[in-house]
Amino acid sequence: MEKRFIIALVLAMGILYIFNVFSPGKKGPVREQIVVKQERETVQTGNNFDDKRDVFYPEATMDKGDIQNLLAEEEVAVLENNIGEITFSNIGGNIKEIAIAKYWTKSSSEENEIIYTQDNPADGLFSMGTALLPGLRTKQFEMKKGENTIEYSFTENDWMEVVKTYTFDTVSDSLEAEILVRNLSPKKMVMSFSIVGPSDLESDSKVAGRSFMEANLFVDGKLIKKKSVKSIERNSGSVDWVAFKDRYFVLVLKPFSFPEEVVLEPDNGKSIKMSLVSKKHELRPGEEQTFKYLLYAGVLDEKKLADIGENMNLLVNYGIFGGVSKVLLTVLKVFYNWFHNWGAAIIFLTLLINLVLLPLTGKSFKAMQQMKTIQPHLVKLKELHKDNPQKLNKETMELYKKYNVNPLGGCLPLLLQMPIFIALYQGLIRSVGLKGAGFLWIKDLAKPDAVAIPLTLPFIGNHINILPLLMCVGMFLQQKISMGNNAGGATTDEQANQQKMMMIFMPIFFGFLFYNMPSGLVLYWLMNTILMTSEHAVLSRNMNKG
Questions:
Q1: Domains identified in the chain and CATH numbers
Q2: Could you give the CA distance from residue 49 to residue 191 in angstroms, rounded to a whole number?
Q3: What would the pLDDT profile of 258-282 be if each residue is shown by its tens digit?
């Protein structure tokens, strides 16, 4: 959707330029992947065993009754600080819910944003599975809670003990997790286990029907991106970290001991289930081993991610003009700090961009006016040499030279402006500051400015987006003023009809393109249209005086 929008926008602006010159974008269970050996005997508890790889996939199906039984036995505990709060379940000792503080908008700073939640307690984050302890994911763990620490433990007498310890790190805005496995039996164990990794985020914010949900893996020094999978995919190698992100937020899990592989599988075709499978580990009688992980849950902030782990900053991607996006977002935040309103910040950023580009706008306008001046001569040349293309090209070039006209003079400045718009589009659409931020009648600049109406209209419903309609009006007036400025030039009847068609078509096309876009982005384009129209009117008046 995003690429199609940008391509459509570029084509539309190209058409507009050519016209001005030559016319007068039910959750299922996690299937665990485990490897188990005990004194040369392979433990099997199912019927899906791969003899070549010693990998077992248990069929961990659970119906509604099973889940209800677990919920009846469930007890939750919460760790919280200024960063947010994490809710744990005693079923499996897993993370059930993650909420972070809404520090990005002052209007709702006292609330928390739930970015992850899991209804099935056996499928929560850090849910652990191993064939040495079948059904470990559904066992009741004992809980001990400290100020910033919570511990869950489960013991199978004369066999194995599992202890999960979670600690809030207030320095790095992250959670440290340790999983301790102790062999209580008199025999040596060679085992592996799987844990549930990051998955669906609750806060996904779509744009014009497009979801930003995406699984990211950093394996063997390469970033792997997956929006969906059709079947089980195994990613083996040196796994630095795994992540699941949406438009604004991300869950990143970094294992400190490399797992054997990361397994991705479809979740009813709508999302991706992710699990990390450990390597084989040998535990002698009475021996224990601890596995450490780091979990970051929060905003897609490049600096924070870079501080937490190497190459995690790659999770923040603004596209090909990412550098320009970062500069524009930095300036936008400066304006926000001045006015304490994101809508006002967007307006002043638009004003600043237009001021910086004003010299280019002037050159572009002058070049287009020059092309319109010689347009009657071009029409005559085409009629005179319509059967001789070579002669036509030669005479056209001489005409440009005679009147000192550069046919690309109006195009090049416009092309220089396009990266700025695309960069701003990429930045605004991912700026969490706009989420929930109001301006005038707009309740959320990250969404369309839907205003309730007392009736239901076909294709529109009972809400109407005001900003795109204002933008259409603004573009219509811009086209009308442009046509008025060209009234003195000679045009054919065909060109006059083309002008009228474009005056109607372009506003409608852009209105359709922007109708379901975030209101913050539409606000920028509306203000840009108003400023460009004003600039053209002033430039035209000055040229007429001259």
A1: 2-24+322-545 (no CATH), 38-315 (2.70.98.90)
A2: 15
A3: 788 888 888 766 678 888 888 888 8
